[in-house]
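The records we work with from here on pair a chain with its fold. These numbers are not coordinates but entries in a learned vocabulary of local backbone shapes. To see the layout at work, look at the sequence and tokens printed below:
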Amino acid sequence: MSEASTHRIIADGAIVADGWTLMALPQVEEAVRKQAGKVVLFRLTGEQTHTPEQLAALQVPAGRVLVPLAVWRLQKDALAARVAAGEIGICVDTHEMVEDLVESCADINAFPVIAVRFERFADGRGYSIATLLRTRYGFRGQLRAVGDVLRDQLFLMKRCGFNAFDVRADRDIEVALAGLRDFTEPYQGAVDEPQPVWRRHARG
């Protein structure tokens, strides 16, 4: 488990101090998998990476904590009082099913923060998770991108509903912030602006 976070994140278009601890799962050794002669870089959707015994044994630290979805599903009864106190957020990995989160709680908006962890920047499933949380499931809280989060992704992540970004530690957060302003007038409709540009502006 990580120490209480003291680094900065981007939230609502500004750089702010982060008050949440991102709880980490124990490392597991994964076999190299190949398909059509190429190494498979991403975990399969719905794949289980830890045993129930490993997850049940983990201790959720004190304070405000982003709890891995798999841990939450096993320990949700024990964490109920902390959810009510606004101390628990959820971290979803890109290979996990967002439906598992929704089905595990009475109200998804009981969580002040939901994070989506990008193990690799090229894994686009996190964008779909964000879109589903905002549109189909009506999540209104902070939706945070964590993990392999880079400057060039931020504008597109914002379009899918992310409003907070934990930029990769080896990158300049000030430079990354500028990525939110890469384009002034997106063409397509998306979570942040449902209407496409041709509906927003009348032709002369």
User: Anything to note?
Assistant: The chain has one domain: 8-21+46-200. Residues 155 and 181 are 7 Å apart (CA to CA).
